[in-house]
Amino acid sequence: MKKLISFFTIAVAIPLLLMAFTPREQQGPTTDQYIVIAWNDLGMHCANLDFSNMCILPPYNNQKAHVILKGSQTSLPTVMPASSGVYVTYEIPGNTESATKTNFWNYSQHIFGVTLQPNIGLTGFGMTGTMLKSDTINYQHVEGIPITAFPDATPTTSTPYQLTLMKAYSSSNVLLATTQSVIPISHEINCVSSGCHSSELNILNAHESVTGFNIANKPILCATCHSDNALGTPGHTGVPPFSQVIHQKHGNKTNDCYKCHPGPNTQCFRDVMHSGGMTCQQCHGTVSNVGNTIEAGRKPWLQEPSCGATNCHGPNYAEEPGKLFRQSTGHAGLFCSTCHSSPHSILPSEQPNDNVQNIALQRFAGSRFYDQYPVSHCHGRKS
């Protein structure tokens, strides 16, 4: 009997000892003193899905984040600087790879002059990784995540509003906080659709009379000839910018922004202003106006509608001088998007996933911290 008891004791003890020394992923933060807040820079990113003929935009998505040490009744919160050693990792649960969902990697060398490993984007970042730290502003960021709109489990079903998982760690690799942020991506930028072009080859064939254009050199990057500030390409001298050409060419055919900008299914303008009845045209003007203002000297992507315009919110709610909303910072160096979210998804959003992060932080789907909720989790308090 004693031998049986001893055997039973050993049999139980061994698995327990093995469990004690088996590395396990941390299931949650070990402290509630920190929060991490993340956001996308534009509220929507577009990308071609098929690159065999032409490329307007590659798979390229961005995320930014602040890590904040909560305050207390006697101390203010602190936005953690790069010197703190705190770092943030990113991943997209349920979407671990893109290389089987688009043929971009077959043509990256021809289009952009770089040979990329599968699932590595144009800036060298993949579907998971560690964000870069900014030395001048206390935030972390990653640019060029090569995500598609197709999760692993449903590789033929477009899901434009997927969620990241961001994890903030201390310099000693202790998990401090986690959050989820929308990483928006749509492939509705496709020129081939009902009532539009019948094929991409027809679009390219229409350029046959253009000096130097060679359709045999496809796939063609539109921004090679037409400058595009979204991609940072200078284009060819004397050739109008891509945005100008597209908007002026199509302005007399439609005033429906969703014919190109995503889109009838994606519905990328989904924020509180849209809920209040605003349209794209109330900020950007008509499709023709977008192109005409570029011809008159406006720089597309770099000069856009201003929150501080006199016919909008006015100077008391303006961006920083010379900067766009997505570039501007305010309270304690926080980006405007930290609390209000990204352009086109200003909180509260009609898209439920946009609201996930701030509901987790403050239990309601409004602008983070400041409106409707009298005391902020950011300050380490609850009402």
Question: Can you characterise this structure?
Answer:
The protein has 383 residues and is an alpha+beta fold. It folds into 2 domains: 34-190 and 328-379, Sandwich (Immunoglobulin-like); 202-259 and 272-295, no CATH class. It contains 9 helices and 14 strands. Strands 1, 4, 5, 8 and 9 form a 5-stranded antiparallel sheet that branches. Strands 7-6-11-12 form a 4-stranded antiparallel sheet, with no helix packed on it. A 3-stranded mixed sheet has the order 2-13-10, with no helix packed on it. Helix 4 crosses helix 7 (287-295).
Layout of secondary structure:
Layout: H1 2-21, E1 34-39, E2 45-46, E3 54-55, E4 61-69, E5 78-79, E6 87-91, H2 104-112, E7 129-130, E8 132-133, E9 140-145, E10 161-163, E11 165-169, E12 175-179, E13 182-186, H3 200-205, E14 220-221, H4 242-250, H5 272-275, H6 280-284, H7 287-295, H8 336-340, H9 356-362
Parallel strand pairs: 2-13, 3-14
Antiparallel strand pairs: 1-4, 4-5, 4-9, 6-7, 6-11, 8-9, 10-13, 11-12
Helix pairs in contact: 4-7
Top-tier CATH class of the largest domain = Mainly Beta
What's the number of structural domains?
Answer: 2
- Give the helix/strand class: alpha+beta
Topology-level CATH name of the largest domain: Immunoglobulin-like
CA-CA gap between termini: 61 Å
List the main descriptive attributes of the protein structure presented here:
single chain, 383 residues, alpha+beta, Immunoglobulin-like, 2 domains, 4-stranded antiparallel β-sheet, 9 helices, disordered N terminus, disordered C terminus
Explain briefly what this protein structure is.
With 383 residues, the protein is α+β, with helices and mostly antiparallel strands.
